Amino acid sequence: MRVPLRHSALLLLIATLAAGCVQTYGGRRALILIPNSQEMQLGEQAFKEVNTKEKQCTNAQANALLQDIGRRIAAVSSQPTWKWQFHLFDSPTTMNAFALPGGKVGVYSGLLGPAGTAAGLAAVIGHEVAHAIQRHGAERVSRAMIVDAGLKAADVSLSNGAYHDKIMAAMGMGANVGLMLPYSRDMELEADRLGLLFMARAGYDPAHAVAFWQRFGKATAGQKTPELLSTHPANQRRIDGLKAALPEAQRVYAASARLGAGMALTVPNCAANVFGSAPTTAAPAATPAPSRAAAPRGPSAPAGTKVSRPGH
Question: How far, in Å, CA of 280 to CA of 120, rounded?
Fold first, then answer.
């Protein structure tokens, strides 16, 4: 029996999706069509390019702290044998961090200000480590491949239609706003939750993850994209999610070496070797989660500050 072409294409798509489903850390099934070996190569290549373009921060104390936190969190992750790398880039006006496949993590020096403490920085590193372990980059690319294939098929089938351009534009926008962006926000929330557990297991007080996002929200007030059009969840949604996950994280933290908050941080002077201040162990005071309408408005980031939520 001969299968119609459109049915063959559908069966091929179903087989591809089934073959591409993998189980990530924590048991979630994810669509990943890129082989792990290729993903690792892409991560290595991309990290080399970033390191060529970006200026390295040579502050020895700041780098030592980043390496120590990164080492501790990587060691308690599900991939302790990866060739983890943690690089600090000299950009005091950039509040961002990112993770690439295979355990390549970059942090911009401007993010250490809102990090506030070593535990706050551990929240950032835990989040980025979770992105790498969950293979979020490969999952995002795989979903984009499926969406692109669907749009191309629609383009062919509608090629003779009177409203082809308008329909394709609407479908493209719908795929982005209705599929790709929500998936991206879900990945960020997953990295928040897993990163909270990683930092707690490494001995950092998970309460400081909430404090970090509160400081970050104040530092970036007035510069937010509406959540519907953003790759990242709104700050308050992230804070609410972290607070919900705190009881489990606190149990993990209670069984760890309990390093507390660690030293207080400021944006490092990458041209000098002065950084941070005395250690602190006190947990931040618990504050009720404000509604979005009543959320406090902190000072805006300085003019020229590049704002990009951690998690890229």
Answer: 12
Give tens-digit pLDDT for 223-276. 678 888 898 999 999 999 999 999 999 999 999 999 999 999 999 999 876 665
Q: Which of 128, 139, 188, 190 is catalytic?
A: 128
* 156 close to 150: Cβ distance less than 8 angstroms: no
DSSP 93-109: TEE-EEEETTTEEEEEG
| Token pair 């005091």 in the structure block, residue | 92
Cβ distance 113 to 219 under 8 Å? yes
Q: Classify the C-alpha dihedral 78-81-83-88 as positive or negative.
A: positive
Helices (H) then strands (E): counts for the chain: 10, 9
How far is the C-alpha of 296 from the C-alpha of 288, rounded, in Å?
Answer: 12
The Cα–Cα gap between 122 and 251 comes to 17
Asked if 270 contacts 121 with a C-beta cutoff of 8 angstroms, the reply is: no
Token pair recorded at residue 107: 């942090």
**Residue 128 falls in the annotated catalytic set:** yes
CB 88 within 8 A of CB 49: no
Total-model pTM: 0.79
CA 271 to CA 101: how far, in whole Å? 30
Q: Name the token pair of 254.
A: 């209670």
* 6, two tokens: 């459109």
Distance CA 116, CA 192 (A): 18
What are 71's two structure tokens?
A: 């080492």
Given a cut of 50, is residue 312 above it in pLDDT? yes
Task: Decide if 135 contacts 73 (C-beta within 8 A).
Answer: no
Instruction: Find, among 102, 96, 66, 78, the residue nearest to 25 by Cα.
Output: 78
The Cα 219–Cα 171 span in angstroms is 36
